[in-house]
Amino acid sequence: MTRDSRMVWDDCLRTIKKSVSPQSFKTWFEPIKPVQLDTEVLTIQVPNKFFFEWLEEHYVQLLKKSIRQELGERGRLVYHIPESGSKPNGHSSNSSKLDTRPSADKDSEPVPGSFDAEMIKNPFIIPGIKRIKVDPQLNANYTFENFIEGDCNRLARNAGLAIAKKPGGTAFNPLFIFGDVGLGKTHLAQAIGNDVVSKIESKAVLYVSAEKFTNQIIQAIKNNSVNDFVNFYQMIDVLIIDDIQFLSGKQKTQEIFFHIFNQLHQNGKQIILTSDRPPKDLEGMEERLISRFKWGLSADLQAPDLETRMAILETKMDEEGVDIPSDVLEFICYNIKNNIRELEGVMVSLLAQSTLIRRDVDMVLAKEVIRNFVTTINKEITVEFIQQLVAEHFNVPVEKLHHETRKRNIVIARQLSMYLAKKLTNKSLKSIGEQFGGRDHSTVIYSCKAVQDMMDTDIVFKDTVEEVEKKLKMSLNI
C-alpha cells in the first residue's frame, strides 16, 4: 500500500510521542500538518517562523531520527510556513518553503533540522540573523520623553538611556533599579524596553512581573515543560523583571531564574530588574543571586524634590491641554511629596473635574482633590514639620539638624528651623532646643538673632526665609 504524507507523519508522531512529555507533544507537534510526500521528502506545515526555530533548536535530533526511520537514510523534511492569508493546505502563493539542507555544505546529504542559506537561522547557533518575535508586554505610554529627570533619578535615567542604545553592551548589566512605591521604577524599566523595541527591531524584549514569572514556572512544573520555559527565556535579548523582591522565599523559582540569568548574562543579553529595596536588603533570596544582582549597576530612585514634582505635574497637565495656575501647582506639589503615583492620581482627578464637570482648576478644586490623597493633615505647625520642610528646602538630611557640625548649609538650616519654630509655634525656647539634639534655650535665642541679622543684611536670604515660611503655611492650608 502506498503511503501518503498523512500516514508517514502519523508514523513519525508515534516515534516522537515516546520521547517527549505530553505537554510538549501537544504544544510543538500536534499543530504540525503534513502537506506533501515526494519519495524521500516530507513537507510539513508549521504555524510560524518562531515555531520553526523552536523545533530546530530543541527537537532537531528527534525529527531526524523519526523521518529517517520512515523514509530511510536519505529522508528529509521541508518546512512550509504560511504567511498571512495562506490556507492550511499550503497552496497559497504567499507561502514559503524552507528546506533543511545545511548552508555550510550544500552538496552533502540533506538532514532534517539543518538550514538552507536563505532560511531563518537559529538565533543561538548563527548570531546576527533575524530573531524571534515576542510580544514585549510593554506599556507604550512609558517613555523617556515623559520620564521627567531630576536629582532624584538622574543616575538611573542616564544609565537607562545608555542601555537602550547598546543593550547588553554596557557595564550596567544587570541594571538593578530600586526605590519606594510610586517613584517610577516600572516607568523607567519599560521606557528602556520601549526605546529598544522602537530602534533595534532585531532585539527580542520582554517585560514580566516577578509574580507572573513565578506563576509561569508553577505551570511549567505542572506540565513537565520547565526546559521549554527556560529555553524560551534564554532567547530573550532584553529581559525586564519587575518587583524582583517577590521571588523571596521561592526556592525553586530562584533556582530556575539563576540559570536563566547566567545564560543571558554570559551571552551578552541585557537584564533589568526592579525592587523596592537594594540587593543587600533582599531577605529570603539566595546569596548567589544577590551577588549577581550587584554585578552591574544598582541605581536608586528617591522621592522627587519640589521642582521635579512641579515639572512632572506641569508636563502631564500640558499633555492633556489643561492650564493650571502656578499657585495651584505649588499648592499640590507642597502637599504630595513622596509618591509620583499619587501626584498622577491628583492630576487624573483634576482632569476629570475639569473636563467632565467643566470646573476651573483653581485653589478650591485643588483643596478638594488633595483631601482624598493626604491621609494625615497637620492642623498646626509642629517643630518636626518645620525641620522636615527646611531640610528639604536646603537639601540636607533632617537628622543632620540634630548633630554638631560646622557645615554652613546645615548650620543655616538649623538656625532657620529654630527661628521659624519660635515664630510659628507656641513651644517654649527650652522645648525647641531639646528637639534639636538637646540644645539649651540660649542656643535658640542666638540662632533666632543670627537669622534676623542675615535677613536685615542679605535680601536673597530674606527671600529664602519668606519662601520657606510660605511653604509651611501653604502646606497646612487645606
What does it look like?
The structure is a single chain. The chain has 478 residues and is an alpha/beta fold. The protein has 4 domains: 5-98, GMP Synthetase, Chain A, domain 3; 154-301, P-loop containing nucleotide triphosphate hydrolases (Rossmann fold, 3-Layer(aba) Sandwich); 306-370, Orthogonal Bundle (Helicase, Ruva Protein, domain 3), CATH 1.10.8.60; 383-475, DnaA protein, C-terminal DNA-binding domain (Chromosomal Replication Initiator Protein Dnaa, Chain: A, Orthogonal Bundle), CATH 1.10.1750.10. Helix content is 48%, strand content 10%. It is built from 19 helices and 9 strands. It has a 5-stranded parallel beta sheet, sandwiched between helices. Strands 1-2-3-4 form a 4-stranded mixed beta sheet. Strand 1 and strand 2 (41-45) form a beta hairpin. Mean pLDDT is 79; it is low at 84-131.
Features:
478 residues, alpha/beta, GMP Synthetase, Chain A, domain 3, Rossmann fold, Helicase, Ruva Protein, domain 3, five-stranded parallel sheet, four-stranded mixed sheet
Detail the topology: elements first, then pairings.
Blueprint: H1 5-17, H2 22-28, E1 33-38, E2 41-45, H3 49-58, H4 60-71, E3 76-81, E4 96-98, H5 154-165, E5 175-179, H6 185-199, E6 205-209, H7 210-222, H8 226-233, E7 238-242, H9 251-266, E8 270-275, H10 287-293, E9 297-301, H11 306-319, H12 326-335, H13 340-356, H14 363-370, H15 383-394, H16 408-424, H17 429-434, H18 441-457, H19 459-475
Parallel strand pairs: 2-3, 5-8, 5-9, 6-7, 7-8
Antiparallel strand pairs: 1-2, 3-4
What's the CATH architecture name of the largest domain? 3-Layer(aba) Sandwich
Low confidence ranges: 84-131
Main beta sheet strand tally, sense and closure: 5 strands, parallel
| Number of domain units | 4
Helix content: 40-55%
